Amino acid sequence: MEFDKDKVDDMTLALLYLVICHRNQGFGGRAWKSFDWDTLNRLHEKGLLMDPKSKAKSVGMTEEGFKQAEALFLKHFGKKKKD
After folding, report:
1. How far is CA 12 from CA 48, 54, 80, in A?
2. Domain span at residue 68?
3. Residue 60 per-residue DSSP state
4. 19/73 Cα distance (integer angstroms)
5. What is the C-alpha separation between 61 and 70, in angstroms, rounded?
6. Checking DSSP bridges between strand 20-23 and strand 29-32, what pairing results, if any?
7. CB contact at 8 A, 52 and 41
8. Is position 83 within any domain?
9. Among 45, 46, 49, 7, CA closest to 32
10. Which of the residues in the chain have pLDDT under 50?
């Protein structure tokens, strides 16, 4: 099956925001890395994650990655405020 890898990357990045286990202001954060390895590698190649190839159970997010993850999470999963 063919699929849009950029859309998968965006949704994975948004869900990484959901599983952030540590935030380091100005340096990104760390998120549990229980996602598809190919997707994590693409996000690393895009400069949004640190290299996911390690024995650690979490992956580092760059500051840009954290900001994009937050924006994507709120866009796709945030609830709109009721007036």
Report:
1. 11, 19, 22
2. 5-77
3. E
4. 11
5. 11
6. antiparallel
7. yes
8. no
9. 49
10. none
Q: In what order do the strands lie in the sheet with 29-32?
A: 20-23, 29-32, 58-61
The rounded Cα 31 to chain-centroid distance in angstroms is: 8
Question: How many CB atoms within 10 Å of residue 58?
Answer: 19
Residues 55/63, Cβ–Cβ less than 8 Å: no
Has residue 26 been placed in a domain?
A: yes
By the 8 A CB rule, do 35 and 18 touch?
no
Q: What is the pLDDT of residue 78?
A: 86
Q: At residue 78, what is the residue type?
A: G
pLDDT tens digits along 58-78: 999 999 999 999 999 999 888
